[in-house]
Amino acid sequence: MPQGHFAHSRHPLRLTTLPLMLSFLLIGFFWVAENYSTYFGAWVYPHQRGGWRGVSLHILSSWFLLVIVSFILVADLEHVREKLRGRSAESLLPAEMDAIRQAG
């Protein structure tokens, strides 16, 4: 089993995972997209009114916060949904629960 933190998502046919570090690296794509969008006039930030300047790297913290909050909300809602269905937490990720039992 790979080491590190992963986001798990259960689709009707399979369980998928996404390394959290990869999700944070993908945020860089949004920063680049914002720069292109502002350059071509899709919107203008206040500091760009006098002429185009690149979007600050500080905006990445907003994207990081968005990803963290999204993962937390999805994980919590998944847990609530399973409780409402009357299923145990073990039914969510059986392979991970087996690994935890073996390690403990």
Provide a descriptive summary of the structure in words.
- This protein is mainly alpha-helical.
- It has one domain.
- The chain has helices spanning 20-39, 59-85, 94-103; strands at residues 6-10, 15-19.
- Strands 1-2 form a two-stranded antiparallel ribbon.
- A hairpin with a 4-residue loop joins strand 1 (6-10) and strand 2.
- Helix 1 (20-39) packs across helix 2 (59-85).
- The model has no long low-confidence stretch (mean pLDDT 75).
- Tell me the number of structural domains: 1
Rg over alpha carbons = 19 Å
What is the arithmetic mean of pLDDT?
A: 75
Biggest beta-sheet profile: 2 strands, antiparallel
So what's the overall shape?
Answer: elongated
Oligomer designation: single chain
The SS-based structural class is: mainly alpha
Distance between the termini: 15 Å
H/E element order: EEHHH
Count of DSSP H/I helices: 3
Query: How much strand?
Result: 5-15%
Strand tally is 2
> In terms of per-residue confidence, which ranges show pLDDT below 50 for 5 or more consecutive residues?
none
Strand order of the largest sheet: 1-2
Query: Residue share in helices?
Result: 40-55%
